[in-house]
Design a protein that fits this description.
- It comes from Dunaliella salina (Green alga).
- Residues 191-272 form the CR-type domain.
- Residues 1-41 are annotated as: Disordered.
- A zinc finger (CR-type) spans 191-272.
- By secondary structure, the protein is an alpha+beta fold.
- It is elongated.
- The strands form eight sheets. The chain has a four-stranded mixed sheet.
- It is built from nine helices and 20 strands.
- The protein has helices spanning 52-56, 64-78, 88-102, 105-114, 116-119, 142-150, 185-190, 334-339, 399-417, and strands at residues 22-25, 36-39, 44-47, 177-183, 192-203, 219-220, 229-236, 239-246, 255-256, 268-279, 288-291, 307-313, 320-322, 325-333, 341-347, 350-356, 365-368, 374-375, 378-382, 385-392.
Length: 422
């Protein structure tokens, strides 16, 4: 077992531990039974150490073979990949600590005399124990201990093949990336093909994404012993407390290496890539397109993230869009409104002749069916084009026009009241 490894894996073994987890150790004497107690002033859970012999289900006179056999059975029973009961993972961690202490003659002798505090440095200041002050917190990670028994995972356990081992230095999926794309009005309506240049993180070709300098390899972090976490002990009136945090040297990976000169150890470098993008018909401002696996590269062989393309659409000088409907305005004279006419209307399909019927009122909306926007995901279905008619009333007219209008007015009056009106 390597000194400095931690037997408690906080948060399921992931490297990103943010909040410290406090574990109480008894000030001395034999271990007591496990009983959680809440310290309301500190907001932490205080846990009395469990008896190691009871955890493994062996007597205090058990030999190494019995202890080893008991550990194998208990570890299989409480491994969190197998046992989903609440508290199973904590029990698994305690079993690993118990086995590591009782399987080593020196540690077992210290434990039998002073309890868990003696193993974790709590007895360093006692007279006659001058050499024990440096023995603090040398428990291994319980999952590493388990893997040393079962060959790196759950594959060797009957009925549990295929359940992968847990590792701190696991592959990490790359971050998603964003690209903002502006389209012309008609490009958004009918779709288009675009070539876009994306600046993203790609796997470093020099180190093949490992982050390590060519010709070198990673080694176990000397500060945390490969656990990815460091522990500091604090003596309080309540006893010894341990504070667990992410190792600052290896950043929780449990490994250190000489960084690659190209990527600086990240395993990724920033580069630009040209991507062919097919924009479907019917997109609009606010639409988002997803391009799989074209985001930032993952770390340590992880899958790349996705690229999200956010669409904005330029305005059209004559046309307005509302979902799959197109709107536009046409202005006619009051004479054309009375007599009717034919006008040329700009549509997404190009100029189209539209018949204005006689007697059209101001504000009338005329419908041009199937001249709108294709429905997104179903381009065979299209919206309509709505033409809003404005009637232009002149502010001033010529004398001849006035005479004609007055004659028209007189004719309307006769038609309204008849020949016998007074």
């Amino acid at each position: 077992m390597q000194a400095g490894k931690l037997g408690t894996r906080i948060g399921g073994g992931h490297a990103g531990v943010q909040q410290p987890h406090l574990l109480k150790q008894p000030a001395g004497g034999r271990p007591a039974s496990s009983r959680p107690r809440l310290n309301s002033r500190r907001g932490a859970v205080v846990v009395r150490a469990a008896d190691y012999y009871s955890l493994l289900g062996v007597s205090r006179n058990a030999d190494k073979k019995q202890i080893k056999q008991a550990y194998r059975q208990a570890a299989r029973k409480y491994h969190p990949d197998v046992n989903r009961d609440p508290g199973a993972e904590d029990k698994f961690k305690e079993i690993g600590q118990a086995y590591e202490a009782l399987s080593d003659d020196n540690k077992r002798a210290i434990y039998d005399r002073y309890g868990e505090a003696g193993l974790k440095g709590g007895m360093g200041g006692m007279g006659g124990m001058g050499g024990m002050g440096g023995m603090g917190a040398d428990f291994s990670n319980p999952f590493d201990l388990f893997e040393s028994f079962f060959g790196g995972g759950m594959g060797g356990m009957g009925g549990m093949g295929g359940m992968g081992s847990r590792t701190r230095n696991r592959a990490t999926t790359g971050e998603d990336d964003r690209y903002d794309l502006q389209l012309d009005f008609l490009e958004a309506v009918f779709g288009c093909a675009k070539e876009i240049d994306v600046d993203r993180l790609a796997s470093c070709s020099t180190c093949s994404g490992s982050g390590a300098k060519a010709g070198t390899s990673a080694s176990s972090c000397p500060q945390c012993g490969g656990a990815g976490q460091v522990v500091s002990a604090v003596r309080t009136p309540l006893g010894m407390f341990q504070q667990v945090a992410t190792c600052p040297r290896c950043e929780g990976t449990g490994q250190i290496f000489t960084p690659c000169d190209t990527c600086g150890g990240d395993g990724r470098v920033r580069e630009s890539k040209r991507i062919s993008l097919k924009v479907p018909a019917g997109v609009d401002s606010g639409s988002r397109l997803r391009v799989r696996a074209e985001g930032n590269a993952g770390k340590r062989g992880g899958e790349p993230g996705d690229l999200y393309v956010y669409i904005t659409v330029k305005d059209h000088p004559e046309l307005r869009r509302d979902g799959i409907s197109i709107h536009s305005d046409v202005e006619i004279s009051y004479v054309d409104a009375i007599l009717g006419t034919q006008v040329k209307v700009t549509t997404v399909d190009g100029p189209v002749e539209l018949k204005i019927p006689s007697g059209t009122q101001p504000g009338t909306t005329l419908l041009m069916a199937k001249r709108g926007v294709p429905r997104l995901g179903n381009s065979a279905s299209r919206g309509d084009h709505q033409v809003h008619v404005r009637v232009r009333i002149p502010k001033s007219i010529s004398s001849d026009e006035r005479k004609l209008v007055e004659q028209l007015k007189e004719m309307q009056s006769k038609a309204k009241f008849g020949p016998f009106s007074f």
